[in-house]
Write a structure and sequence with these properties.
Length: 412
């Protein structure tokens, strides 16, 4: 493959409930430290959620934060951190050749709920409706806020792909770099979902809202006692470049994106389709020129819903049944489900495995559901292996959108 078609990750910026940079995040994953809190939500009372504690004032003024959105602040923080981590000469870069591709599950609900609540205090008089409402709620908002903050004049998109959106952001960045539409990409996903009561109310109505007396044990994929999703906020933005450009500036390379897949179940709004998920994995493997046995680590999407976890495991057993050196883990057990950020954020926590050959565990599995058994599922404590050269990242969403990204260790 031509160097211009090979796309690599050169910077990572993130905020997660258990870490505000890759080093802190990774350490907590290896140390088994989750961070789920009980928070108060309008009309709902106390619910469990993953809350980030990054400092938005690092890259924004108080006025910018007040006029913008939480998703925008998350994206701005992560983008700045990724650029800093990449070591690129930001002052010298042509910002018309920089693209922003941010995945998100939903946007505008938080702002709309807040505005309706605010005018309800004034007998629904719309003169109290904020003039900031429109720019806050348009679908391109989070990426647009990053564009304005960083003075990026290239294209910016917010990609709505439900909980597959973090991977979708990465995929779109890869495609645009290969098409030579841009020379540098900020790609990944963000989520502000915990600031809307509606998502909690809907999951509770569905019987899919996670609960536990001990918050850090509420997110428990594959466990027989799992009872639903723990909703979280968070974000992860990567800097992506063509390999040739990264080598020219002697950038550190976290890994090479060698394959990806996107497809649709076309069967149900909520219930996953394991056949379509398996096809998505096969599509990514084909694009990467790899076989299932070439994958060393699979980060599962499993959200702690009863049927969803089972369906994904069916797909994984179908693909990896004869792969003794393929291992499986889950990151949501630590941070809950970061929705549009999930795919990008979960991948970041696993990329250091290329260097330390250690696979972080899936925690909170006290009793493994037999329907979720996978060969080499890493449970409750990290596992040191001989090597990790390839990572496959699953991320699936409502309305049957599936995304898979494959990253390969880059050997200098």
């Amino acid at each position: 493959m031509d160097l211009n078609d090979r796309i690599v990750i050169t910077g990572i910026g993130l905020t997660a409930p258990n870490g505000n940079n890759l080093s802190e995040y990774r350490k907590n994953l290896l140390d088994g430290k989750a961070n789920i809190q009980r928070i108060e939500t309008r009309y709902m009372g106390p619910v469990l959620a993953g809350v980030c504690n990054f400092d938005p004032l690092r890259y924004q003024t108080k006025k910018e934060i007040r006029n913008g959105t939480r998703a925008g602040s998350i994206g701005i923080y992560c983008a700045h951190e990724a650029i800093r981590d990449s070591g690129v000469d930001w002052q010298g870069i042509d910002r018309s050749r920089v693209g922003i591709y941010e995945g998100i599950t939903e946007h505008g609900n938080v702002e709309t709920e807040n505005e309706i609540y605010n005018i309800s205090q004034f007998n629904y008089d719309t003169k109290y409706w904020s003039h900031h409402h429109n720019p806050r709620t348009v679908a391109n908002n989070p990426a647009g806020e990053v564009s304005i903050n960083l003075k990026i004049t290239g294209p910016h998109y917010t990609i709505g792909a439900a909980c597959a959106a973090g991977n979708a952001g990465l995929i779109h960045g890869v495609q645009m770099l290969r098409l030579k539409e841009i020379d540098f990409a900020l790609a990944g996903g963000v989520s502000e979902s915990i600031h809307t009561f509606g998502i909690f109310a809907a999951f509770r109505s569905q019987g899919a809202l996670g609960e536990h007396n001990e918050p850090n044990k509420a997110s428990r994929p594959f466990d027989t006692a799992r009872n639903g999703i723990v909703v979280s906020e968070g974000g992860c933005i990567y800097t992506l470049e063509r390999l040739e450009d990264a080598l020219k500036r002697k950038a550190k390379i976290y890994g090479e994106i060698v394959g990806y897949g996107l497809n649709s179940d076309a069967t149900d709004t909520v219930l996953p389709n394991p056949e379509r998920q398996a096809e998505c994995i096969q599509l990514a493997l084909k694009k990467a020129g790899l076989h299932p046995k070439d994958i060393h680590l699979v980060n599962t999407h499993a959200t702690s819903t009863n049927q969803g976890d089972i369906q994904e495991c069916e797909a994984l057993r179908q693909i990896f049944k004869d792969c003794p050196h393929t291992y499986f883990n889950n990151t949501k057990s630590f941070i809950g489900h970061a929705m549009g950020a999930a795919g990008a954020l979960e991948l970041a926590g696993n990329l250091p495995s290329f260097e330390d050959a250690t696979i972080h565990a899936t925690i909170n599995v006290d009793n493994l559901d037999p329907a979720c058994e996978l060969n080499n599922l890493v449970i409750n404590k990290p596992l040191k292996v001989n090597n990790v050269d390839t990572i496959l990242n699953n991320s699936f969403g409502m309305l049957g959108i599936n995304s898979v990204v494959i990253i390969k260790k880059y050997i200098y």
